[in-house]
């Protein structure tokens, strides 16, 4: 008894000692790890950059705990506004993130041919987009960009006008059914955008009973929500943790839906190609293009720009100027399929699928958010809406309801300024990031960003930089009058990014936005029940309103 009692006493006293030893051991290891980290050049340089104080080991990771996307957005904006600094850092664990908001520093990254690699965060897109243009790197990115960018050449875009007009008419019929009641216009913009993309870039016609656009758009939005949660709930990032969550099985289902549409689209297009090839017919798109060129009321001169974006620096204008010839004047998927069948081009089915998924994602959610923000702003700013309508009256005085031509869109200068101003205040892609493999010495201050860190570039912050924008928070389309743009830094405004890795769909997006928005404004008066200050923004991969894009519409009476 006595012996047993003594043993159990000894065991009981041994246990706390063991746990205390383990605890002290871990603490000691973490302390050594912390001091070792602090001795690294990477961290030493990082520590010189202003930003919220990090905790040992975890850095600033705790800031994300318990916050939803709306709170996150508020927190990030508060940090930005309170810091008054153009350079800010945060640590996620030992990983250094540096946010830049001065155009001169941004140019060092976006304008460079060296810092082209996307940051680690984009890898979360991989199960969905594979190594499509958005995330690919090196030679693969370069050769695919060379192939894809010309498929959005102005001559191709012109041939899309009938599809834009047709889908705009379908949209108007849908909107007509919700006249007089408040509704979320994003739902309509999203479905329409997918349908238009399928028919233009992919060349696949929608059948009457087909609900693909809506289902696909919903799946894309749900996928974005999952990816976004994983971006800021950093403990969900590693796949070995994520795969055990409910979200992972939801992601599998969503990807099945998305990828099955992609495969269907590619198969249909490939079948068409083989039928055409067996009959030795020319490309459908080349034919459509010829018809459209004959059809245009007033075709633009060869060197006429699609819009006024002369102050965005990217490679798209070079593609326009150095005309790439007939061979490449095929719409996106036609070109990819023809390229895959041409000897010498190493383009596999998987690569086509990745690029189709990328274009469907990039081309859809961005434009849906952009058009919904424009309609929200027009709903708030009735005077601006009236000016847009006055411009449309000038253009369509001969026939208010006729289809919109490419030439008409070139005359929509005020509407263009409204779109650009909306994209300034509400950039659909609010932030982009790059991994830097070489040190970057900033030009605006004496700071060096060490190789290996991630650079965050926020359109949302830079587009309101007080040094570059007068009354930065005020909606004013005249910010984009040519004389105002002339002296502004190129990298003060980059809703489509800029430099060699800018958006390949920029011209496509602007053209489509003009046709859709002008069509809505010709038929309806748009009103927003909420004021701009009450918009609840949600930090997401694509910037959205958490409160929905609520508007009301009524028939426009034109005199
Ligand atoms: C308002 C509409 C749009 C906005 C605001 C927008 C914005 C952007 C931005 C900011 C990037 C750079 C992303 C990054 O570096 O992380 C980008 C890239 C890209 N966008 Fe867009 N985009 C729009 C519409 C479109 C459309 C309509 C398409 C295609 C039909 C498209 C296709 C792409 C592709 C393929 C890339 C990757 C380019 C590369 O890395 O070389 N986008 N877009």
Automatic annotation (TrEMBL):
State its cofactor.
heme
Which keywords belong to this entry?
A: Heme, Iron, Membrane, Metal-binding, Monooxygenase, Oxidoreductase, Transmembrane, Transmembrane helix
What InterPro entries does the annotation carry?
Answer: Cyt_P450, Cyt_P450_CS, Cyt_P450_E_grp-I, Cyt_P450_sf, Cytochrome_P450_Monoox
Q: Which GO terms describe its molecular function?
A: heme binding; iron ion binding; monooxygenase activity; oxidoreductase activity, acting on paired donors, with incorporation or reduction of molecular oxygen
User: Which Gene3D superfamilies does the UniProt record give?
Assistant: Cytochrome P450
Positions of heme binding: 503
PROSITE patterns xref list: CYTOCHROME_P450
Q: Coiled-coil intervals in this record?
A: none
Transmembrane parts of this sequence: 18-37
According to its UniProt record, which protein family does this protein belong to? Belongs to the cytochrome P450 family.
Q: What is this protein called?
A: Cytochrome P450
Q: What species is given as this protein's source? A: Dendroctonus ponderosae (Mountain pine beetle)
Show the taxonomic lineage: Eukaryota, Metazoa, Ecdysozoa, Arthropoda, Hexapoda
């Amino acid at each position: 008894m006595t012996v047993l009692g003594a043993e159990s006493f000894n065991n009981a006293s041994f246990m706390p000692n063991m746990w205390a030893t383990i605890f002290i051991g871990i603490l000691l290891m973490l302390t050594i790890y912390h001091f070792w980290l602090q001795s690294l050049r990477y961290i030493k340089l990082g520590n010189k950059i202003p930003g919220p104080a990090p905790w040992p080991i975890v850095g600033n990771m705790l800031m994300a705990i318990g916050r939803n996307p709306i709170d996150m957005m508020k927190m990030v904006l508060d940090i930005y506004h309170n810091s008054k600094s153009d350079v800010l850092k945060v640590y996620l664990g030992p990983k250094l993130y540096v946010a830049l908001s001065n155009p001169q520093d941004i140019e060092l990254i976006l304008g460079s041919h060296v810092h082209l690699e996307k940051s680690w965060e984009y890898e979360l897109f991989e199960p969905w987009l594979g190594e499509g243009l958005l995330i690919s790197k090196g030679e693969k990115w370069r050769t695919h960009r060379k192939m894809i960018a010309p498929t959005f050449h102005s001559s191709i875009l012109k041939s899309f006008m009938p599809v834009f007009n047709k889908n705009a008419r379908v949209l108007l019929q849908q909107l007509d059914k919700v006249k007089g009641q408040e509704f979320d216009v994003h739902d309509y913009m999203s479905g329409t955008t997918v349908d238009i993309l399928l028919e233009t870039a992919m060349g696949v016609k929608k059948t009457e009973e087909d609900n693909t656009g809506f289902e696909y758009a919903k799946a894309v939005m749900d996928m974005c929500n999952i990816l976004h949660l994983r971006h800021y709930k950093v403990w969900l990032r590693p796949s070995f943790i994520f795969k055990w969550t409910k979200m992972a099985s939801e992601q599998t289902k969503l990807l099945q839906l998305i990828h099955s549409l992609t495969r269907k689209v590619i198969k249909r297009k490939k079948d068409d190609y083989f039928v055409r090839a067996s009959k030795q017919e020319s490309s459908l798109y080349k034919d459509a293009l010829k018809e459209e060129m004959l059809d245009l009321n007033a075709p633009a001169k060869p060197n006429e720009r699609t819009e006024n974006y002369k102050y965005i620096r990217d490679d798209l204008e070079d593609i326009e100027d150095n005309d790439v010839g007939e061979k490449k004047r095929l719409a996106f998927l036609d070109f990819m399929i023809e390229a895959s069948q041409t000897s010498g081009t190493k383009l596999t089915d998987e690569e086509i699928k990745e690029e189709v998924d990328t274009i469907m994602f990039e081309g859809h959610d961005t434009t849906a958010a952009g058009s919904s923000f424009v309609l929200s702003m027009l709903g708030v700013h009735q005077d601006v809406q009236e000016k847009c309508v006055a411009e449309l009256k000038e253009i369509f005085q001969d026939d208010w309801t006729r289809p919109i031509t490419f030439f008409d869109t070139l005359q929509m200068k005020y509407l263009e300024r409204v779109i650009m101003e909306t994209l300034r205040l509400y950039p659909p892609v609010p932030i982009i990031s790059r991994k830097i493999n070489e040190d970057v010495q900033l030009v605006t201050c004496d700071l060096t960003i060490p190789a290996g860190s991630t650079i965050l570039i926020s359109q949302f912050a830079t587009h309101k930089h007080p040094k570059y924008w007068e009354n930065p928070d005020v909606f004013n389309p005249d910010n984009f009058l040519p004389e105002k743009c002339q002296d502004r830094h190129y990298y003060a405004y980059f809703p489509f990014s800029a430099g060699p890795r800018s958006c390949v769909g920029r011209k496509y997006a602007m053209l489509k936005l003009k046709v859709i928005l002008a069509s809505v404004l010709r038929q309806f008066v748009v009103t927003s029940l909420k004021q701009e200050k009450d918009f609840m923004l949600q930090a997401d991969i694509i910037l959205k309103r958490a409160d929905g894009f609520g508007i009301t519409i009524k028939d426009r009476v034109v005199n």
